[in-house]
Hints:
This protein is of the alpha/beta class. The protein has a single domain (5-356), classed as 2-enoyl-CoA Hydratase, Chain A, domain 1 (Alpha-Beta Complex), CATH 3.90.226. Helix content is 45%, strand content 11%. The protein is built from 17 helices and 9 strands. It has helices spanning 29-42, 67-76, 83-100, 117-120, 154-158, 165-172, 178-183, 196-205, 211-219, 232-235, 237-243, 249-258, 262-271, 276-289, 294-311, 313-323, 341-346, and strands spanning 5-10, 13-18, 50-55, 60-62, 106-110, 113-115, 129-133, 138-140, 189-190. The protein has a 6-stranded mixed β-sheet, sandwiched between helices. Strands 4-6-8 form a 3-stranded parallel β-sheet. Strand 2 (13-18), helix 1 (29-42) and strand 3 form a beta-alpha-beta unit. Helix 3 (83-100) runs antiparallel to helix 15. 48% of the residues are buried. Residues 13-348 form the Enoyl-CoA hydratase/isomerase domain.
Amino acid sequence: xxxxxxxxxxxxxxxxxxxxxKALNSLSxxxxxxxxxxxxxxxxxxxxxxxxxxxxxxxxxxxxxDIRFFYDVGTATPKGDSxxxxxxxxxxxxxxxxxxxxxxxxxxxxxxxxxxxxxxxxQAGPDCRLRIVTERTKMAMPEVNIGLFPDVGGGYFLxxxxxxxxxxxxLTGEIITAADAIYACLADVYIPTTEIPxxxxxxxxxxxxxxRVAIRDFAATFADQAKPDAxxxxxxxxxxxxxxxxxxxxxxxxxxxxxxSEFAQQTLTTMQKRSPLLMSVTLEQLRRSKDMNVSACLxxxxxxxxxxxxxxxxxxxxxxxxxxxxxxxxxxxxxLAEVTTEQxxxxxxxxxxxxxxxxxxxxx
Length: 364
């Protein structure tokens, strides 16, 4: 078990506390394994009626996967062909699947930063989830910032947001707040941080058969604090739907260039900093994911991430962001005009025969 994942059972609730504050609870392989082991043990335990996952720090629920680890192991061997790297993504995606289909209420308190892999352990399936946000919530799928794509099931949950919101979030990596998250159906209820002690007291005393109902009732008092009129996504929804319905990133960029609004110009500036290739791959991923179930999305993403590390774009992105910290990634190709259809479709090629895929056993 990982020293950064603390667990306990109180009042028949299984508590998981992420406790790696210096790294904003970025997930290591040991943490993924600890989470999986814990959830597997609790799913048939009659003494556990629900799971509550949160952080020991107000700064972050979970900032994602440990990208410095990705870089270190990805550059230690040719083209990122590392057993540890392979194990991390296989086991992380299997954990995402386990959470999506968890047989008991799964409640995530997404206080602070929740990005990438943090979304993967919070965006459980509709039959089990309750996702809580606060005024501190900073939510994003920012993978294109580092030459990756929105994985951990991101293709599945982003492609199922209203209209083109998921496309916008996936291609820009923009950070959204609590009101945005609720509007986009990426969160369920809002609770201010001042009321978290009361929430924890409710959990310690509640005898409700379904804790989600009790928490929803508790949160109803604060719903006005995260209404749609406070959501940037709600205000810009029509523009997002129009612009991001494009069939290519080049077409989307052209629409942004033709739009003189502040939103369009800021969005264009943001996208010009991202990897042209991985934005194009992300758009194709999201379009394909709309017609795929969770398991198929995760298997596709597992193929994609292998191709991504072999290409090396993600290693360059991490280098620029956290290793050399020069914030000037040398993307390859450098421009959208240089991205070819063959380069994009190559990321979706099967990396294993169907019978040998590491996630072949996933169902649903």
